[in-house]
């Protein structure tokens, strides 16, 4: 057969079109083979290329057994056009890279010059197709990194994030599986987070075995395939999982100080081996994984610290006591705290209303947010609205800058409105509006500001009486009074006085670094007989003074320097109301005598004179009441 007339420029244009249509080298081979076949009509055209030790045929038009493979191999070895047995072998590439050969039949379909020209165009086309494929891979890799970075910003779930990174690495690098191993230094193990393809328990391997162990120790990437030493990999894991490793690439996970965190590994490339480009991409992906791990570990440490501080605060702010009223109070707090119900805390001054409010906050879902307390009695009426709702710059004379109010500052947390009974009617109306709408407007501003605040109100006043007297809004009262917690005065809590005293002594002893002193029997009786007009606050202050000033291990009655309340002098109401008349009479007598003894600075003769009784009768009475009869 005579050579088929063909225009080199025509084949060249078809090959250029084939390049444009091709995203991979395989696509180019198929498209280029079709283009050459169309231009050499009537001729038999085949394309063979070497893969490892074997030859493969492009397309399915020819069988490898029907083709002169030996002729193709010789043409590659010599890098020149050869002919034999009616076949023409045109080498596209030599053995310095995977061999590519174009086979034509009959042998005279093209002369050597035309064959070389077509081989050159096919060679150039392969290079361009490879470059296109490389660029496409880079684009895919960059897009993957961008997507993962976006996921990282959206997710704080480390397991979910590492799982998406492992899946992306396996997909982009054409691997079967991927594993991100985090180093459990304490147990000398690498733990898979995740180990794709592994079911059940987390995959754990020794940190000194296999390629992963080598990468962890050296801090350098490694690649391996089955043409290398099989002892380099840990085959026991594969045998246990029924999985054979043919190739892998592994890179280290390092923190910001280049200390090892673990290893990122991808297994079994579909074409046999991982490339340097694969290693580089995995190393870049590992940087993101390392940052995610380190940041998440840092966040976990901060959360742990926060929870520890919250627990410490909860322990410090315990509602201490064993009497029935306190037991019921603790039970109510435990049930109400997780809800969003408004709470009204009632009780005398010093009974611990703020402690109860903080306990509600620390047992709620808002415990990691702000707790802000506002004493409504301490704020001038003209400044109340600014204090609670904030103000804009220039709203009034002293408004030199914008200022957020307490509702804004406490948003997401809890706001305690202490001494709510002291708030003016105008302030109450504005407060009610905010509680209903959950929106504040700063003084001098117009923009509504959404707030999310749990409000706890507290007062020592009788709000029902204030409502009757038209000094407190009824609608605000019902808005605040969803749940009421009534705190008993300390004088009605019986033995809780001693329990609280010992609690405070322990607390202050720990603060100043000394063993807490213990109460003597006489001091116990003395604090039980005291009227405690200042309630728990007074007891706490007394125990603080005792803890700092008492030198010995025992607190004697003489160490209890009570600060007398002028309002309670001679006041029968200071006697606990939960006693029998006989016990109440004894308590009153002890208090009354003790007050005169203290006023006489311990001089019993002078105290007896003030009491209008003989000194011996005072001695006898104090003995009957179990009081200290020492004369200073």
Question: What does this protein structure show overall?
Answer:
The protein has 632 residues and is an alpha+beta fold. It folds into four domains: 8-134, GAF domain (Beta-Lactamase, 2-Layer Sandwich), CATH 3.30.450.40; 155-300, Beta-Lactamase (2-Layer Sandwich); 317-488, 3-Layer(aba) Sandwich (Rossmann fold); 494-624, Helicase, Ruva Protein, domain 3, CATH 1.10.8.60. It is built from 21 helices and 22 strands. A six-stranded antiparallel beta sheet has the order 8-7-6-11-10-9, sandwiched between helices. The radius of gyration is 44 Å and the shape is elongated.
Task: Note the main attributes of this structure.
Beta-Lactamase; disordered N terminus; six-stranded antiparallel β-sheet; 21 helices; Rossmann fold; alpha+beta; 4 domains; five-stranded antiparallel β-sheet; 632 residues; 46% helix
């Amino acid at each position: 057969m005579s050579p088929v007339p063909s225009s080199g420029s025509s084949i060249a244009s078809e090959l250029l079109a084939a390049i444009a249509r091709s995203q991979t080298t395989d696509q180019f081979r198929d498209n280029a083979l079709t283009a050459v076949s169309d231009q050499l009509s009537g001729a038999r055209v085949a394309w063979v290329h070497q893969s490892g030790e074997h030859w493969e045929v492009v397309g399915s038009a020819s069988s490898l057994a029907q083709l002169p493979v030996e002729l193709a191999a010789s043409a590659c070895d010599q890098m020149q056009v050869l002919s034999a047995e009616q076949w023409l072998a045109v080498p596209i590439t030599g053995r310095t890279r995977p061999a590519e050969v174009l086979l034509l039949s009959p042998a005279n379909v093209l002369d050597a010059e035309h064959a070389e020209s077509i081989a050159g165009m096919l060679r150039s086309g392969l290079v361009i197709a490879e470059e296109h494929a490389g660029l496409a891979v880079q684009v895919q890799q960059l897009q993957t990194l961008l997507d993962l970075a976006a996921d990282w910003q959206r997710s704080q779930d480390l397991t979910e994030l590492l799982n998406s990174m492992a899946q992306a690495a396996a997909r982009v690098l054409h691997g079967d599986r991927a594993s991100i191993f985090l180093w459990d230094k304490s147990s000398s193990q690498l733990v898979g987070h995740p180990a794709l393809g592994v079911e059940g328990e987390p995959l754990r391997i020794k940190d000194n075995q296999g390629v992963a162990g080598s990468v962890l120790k050296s801090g350098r990437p490694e690649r391996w395939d089955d043409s290398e030493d099989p002892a380099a990999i840990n085959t026991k894991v594969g045998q246990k999982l029924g999985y054979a490793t043919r190739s892998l690439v592994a890179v280290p996970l390092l923190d910001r100080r280049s200390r090892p965190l673990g290893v990122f590994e991808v297994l079994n490339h579909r074409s046999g081996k991982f490339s340097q480009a694969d290693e580089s991409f995995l190393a870049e992906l590992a940087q993101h994984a390392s940052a995610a791990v380190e940041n998440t570990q840092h966040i976990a440490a901060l959360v742990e610290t926060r929870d520890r501080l919250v627990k410490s605060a909860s322990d410090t702010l315990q509602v201490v006591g064993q009497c029935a009223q306190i037991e019921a109070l603790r039970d109510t707090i435990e049930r109400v705290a997780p809800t969003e119900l408004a709470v009204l805390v009632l009780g005398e001054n010093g009974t611990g209303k703020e402690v109860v409010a903080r306990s509600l906050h620390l047992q709620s879902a808002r415990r990691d947010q702000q707790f802000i307390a506002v004493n409504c009695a301490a704020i001038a009426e003209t400044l109340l609205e600014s204090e609670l709702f904030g103000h804009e710059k220039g709203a009034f004379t002293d408004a030199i800058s914008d200022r957020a109010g307490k509702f804004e500052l406490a948003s997401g947390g809890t706001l305690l409105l202490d001494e709510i009974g002291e708030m003016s009617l105008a302030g109450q109306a504005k407060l009610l509006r905010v509680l209903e709408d959950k929106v504040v407007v700063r003084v001098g501003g117009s923009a509504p500001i959404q707030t999310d605040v749990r409000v706890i109100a507290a007062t020592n006043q009788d709000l029902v009486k204030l409502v009757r007297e038209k000094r407190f809004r009824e609608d605000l009262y019902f808005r605040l009074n969803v749940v009421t917690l009534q705190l008993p005065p300390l004088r009605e809590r019986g033995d809780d006085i001693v329990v609280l005293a010992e609690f405070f002594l322990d607390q202050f002893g720990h603060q100043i670094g000394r063993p807490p002193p213990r109460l003597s029997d006489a001091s116990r009786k003395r604090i039980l007989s005291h009227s405690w007009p200042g309630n728990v606050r007074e007891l706490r202050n007394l125990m603080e003074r005792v803890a700092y000033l008492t030198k010995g291990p025992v607190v004697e009655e003489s160490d209890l320097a009570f600060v007398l309340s002028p309002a309670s002098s001679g006041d029968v109401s200071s006697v606990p109301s939960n006693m029998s008349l006989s016990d109440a009479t004894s308590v009153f007598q002890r208090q009354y005598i003790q007050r005169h003894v203290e006023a006489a600075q311990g001089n019993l003769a002078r105290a007896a004179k003030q009491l209008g009784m003989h000194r011996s009768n005072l001695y006898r009475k104090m003995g009957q009441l179990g009081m200290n009869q020492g004369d200073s």
